[in-house]
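<goal> How does this chain fold?
<body> The protein record starts here
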Amino acid sequence: MNIVIVSNGPGLKDVVDKFGHSSEWIPSAINDSTINYKILKAYEGETCNVKDYDAFIITGSKYSVYDNFEWISNLKIFIDSIISKNKPILGICFGHQILAECLGGKVEKNKLGWELGSYKINLTDNGLIHPLFKGVKDGDIVYESHQDVVSLIPDNAIELAYTEKANQSFAFNDNVFGVQFHPEFSYDVTRELMDIRVLKGISIDSDKLEESLNSKNILVNFINIVRSKM
């Protein structure tokens, strides 16, 4: 299996220096030696031939999907080409948001403020039975680090999960999936992000960080969905 991880920024230096980059955390969480990964740095204008790969994972970013950068505009065109070829895609945080926008949804700054730290996730009736959430329970803890949200999911998309502050997941057809939370984050990475951003004056709902036990299943489940289509 050949997977492209679309990276949307170099990451925060303090975090990368200690823990590496999210493009490394994703393969580590999946832990499958039969997968070949290509890291594509979208923020540096890199692209690839969509037909040569089996699936795509779109990472988070410090940027907003509505920022006026050429690379973000080009990324939207690239994602449109992936969707048009019916390739499986998983978007994480910024990736979730840009998928929603490409499909006609709406992304904006959350009027309720940041979700930063650990949060209980609520699964919809569809989420409870969806293969993307296999092994994830209603009320499970997930890690969050975002201010923008999908305020309107695309037409014909199915909401899979939410918190009190934001949509947390949707599915479009049987091959496009977005999750607002970070299944690739560890406890230590999340703690570091919280501490950095609190020092910068960001207000958070709670400084207590609970451990996320099951959210990494999202990544493995996505791979299993891809494999079932091959």
User: Anything to note?
Assistant: The chain has seven helices and twelve strands. Helices lie at 13-19, 22-30, 70-84, 94-102, 125-129, 187-199, 217-228.
